[in-house]
From TrEMBL:
Signal sequence interval, chain numbering: 1-21
Any GO molecular function: oxidoreductase activity
Annotated family: Belongs to the NADH dehydrogenase family.
Organism this protein belongs to: Pseudocitrobacter corydidari
The name this protein goes by in its record: NADH dehydrogenase-like protein
SUPFAM superfamilies in the cross-refs: FAD/NAD(P)-binding domain
Pfam families: Pyr_redox_2 (PF07992)
Record flagged with keyword Oxidoreductase: yes
Record-linked PANTHER family: 64 KDA MITOCHONDRIAL NADH DEHYDROGENASE (EUROFUNG) (PTHR42913:SF3), APOPTOSIS-INDUCING FACTOR 1 (PTHR42913)
InterPro entries: FAD/NAD-bd_sf, FAD/NAD-binding_dom, NADH-Q_oxidoreductase
Domain FAD/NAD(P)-binding span(s) in chain numbering: 4-312
Keyword line: FAD, Flavoprotein, Oxidoreductase, Signal
Length: 400
């Protein structure tokens, strides 16, 4: 009887898990394993670029790649995981429900921004969480030009000073000039609960963010939290009011709700604890990867972050090890010793760091060139050519 590897999600982790599993099955001349991906659409959505304009173009089709590598695709959404029967319930594009069994499940269902814990965010704030919501934000920004001149129209509030918030905020001065004209008096404000801009990062990186903010005119309100959001702006917990037609929410990222259906330890972001082979603790038949996995990257206490940098390699190891467990071959323990950041800082340029201590190696135009190369080339799927795709899907292949 054919064995079933079922992968939930077609983001960076899910796509690479599918290719890696197919690679190992092919390498072992196995014709007895079916590899199936269930996802809402057969495309990779390049989420790290959703702060950019023309967001609808930031996708890459996956069916040509899946076809040449023998990966099956089901268009739909998984609603329930039945660990006792080793099956999932999923809804197709027509709304019809189906069941799909698995011998190995690779959960790669990603993450989402929690918009429910602050009053008014769900109704009035914008986000970059998904392609659809980023497209709504882009359309709204374009519509500002047709609104009457006011401080609220010209002010954008970015809630959260993490990487997503920083990249969005640094993009906005130039974007607003293009939309409203070079003479418009615009204001971009980042609300950050930390004591200084970029406070969760190294001093070197923090200073670069501060320099870029000053040069671009991006304001920071620190030691602050949002109390509520409404159609006319944001109110902070200290009572300060910021009039704005555009409030962008970038905080409170949580792992997919599907993780709660698996009886296993999770971290505060809902990520499932996994062992070195990315198997969920207490469930040897389930592998977690990408944003749903709380995975140690090394023996120094570091854990994978919710970034495509980690999702790509996590996916390769998870798919490989799911297939290995069915083929009776040795798994490959996940390790990702090298950690880098490359942060887009709008018209100022970018900043590139290496190591968990975030040592700044490149800034401004040098870093910008690297950033463009990473997000427009390196993180995209391989070409639909079987041999090349399998070579890149090897967990130990160099990421170049």
């Amino acid at each position: 009887m054919r064995k079933q590897i079922l992968i939930v999600g077609a983001g960076f982790a899910g796509m690479w898990a599918a290719l890696s599993a197919a690679r190992l099955a092919d390498k072992n001349n196995s014709q007895a394993i079916d590899i199936t991906v269930i996802a809402p659409q057969p495309e990779l959505r390049v989420r790290p670029r959703f702060y950019e304009s023309h967001v609808e173009t930031l996708v890459s089709p996956l069916m040509p790649l899946f076809d040449v590598t023998g990966v099956k695709f089901l268009r739909g959404t998984v609603s329930d995981i039945h660990t006792d029967s080793r099956s999932v319930s999923w809804k197709d594009a027509d709304g019809d429900m189906h069941q799909h069994s698995y011998d190995r499940l690779v959960l790669a269902s990603g993450s989402h921004v929690n918009r429910s814990f602050v009053s008014g965010v769900a109704e009035h704030a914008f986000d970059l969480d998904q392609l659809e919501s980023a497209a709504v934000l882009e359309k709204h920004l374009q519509s500002l030009a047709s609104q009457s001149e006011s401080d609220a129209r010209n002010t954008v509030v970015v809630c959260g000073g993490g990487f997503t918030g920083i990249e969005m905020a640094m993009e906005l001065p130039g974007r607003l000039r293009d939309i409203l004209g070079s003479n418009a008096k615009t204001r971009v404000v980042v609300v950050e609960r930390g004591p200084q801009p970029g406070s969760r990062y190294s001093e070197e990186l923090r200073n670069v963010v501060i320099d870029a903010s000053n040069e671009l005119g991006v304001e920071w309100i620190v030691n602050a939290e949002v109390e509520s959001v409404d159609a006319a702006g944001a109110t902070l917990k200290d009572g300060q009011r910021i009039a704005s037609s555009t409030v962008i929410w970038t905080v409170g990222v949580q792992a997919s709700d599907l993780t709660a259906q698996i009886d296993a330890p999770r971290d505060r972001q809902g990520r499932l604890h996994v062992d070195a082979n990315l198997q969920v603790v207490g469930h040897e038949e389930i592998f977690a990867t990408g944003d749903v996995a709380y995975a140690a990257t090394d023996d120094k206490g570091n854990h994978a972050l919710m970034t495509c940098q980690h999702a790509i390699l996590l996916g390769k190891f998870a798919g490989n090890n799911a297939a290995a467990s069915l083929l009776g071959v040795e798994p490959s323990p996940y390790r990702q010793e090298m950690y880098v950041t490359c942060l887009d800082l709008g018209a100022w340029g970018a900043v590139y760091t290496e190591g968990w201590d975030q040592q700044v190696k490149l800034t401004r135009e040098e870093a910008k060139k690297l950033k463009v190369s990473i997000v427009s080339e390196l993180i995209y799927p391989p070409k639909a050519e079987r041999t090349a795709a399998f070579e890149m899907a090897d967990p130990y292949a160099p990421f170049v």
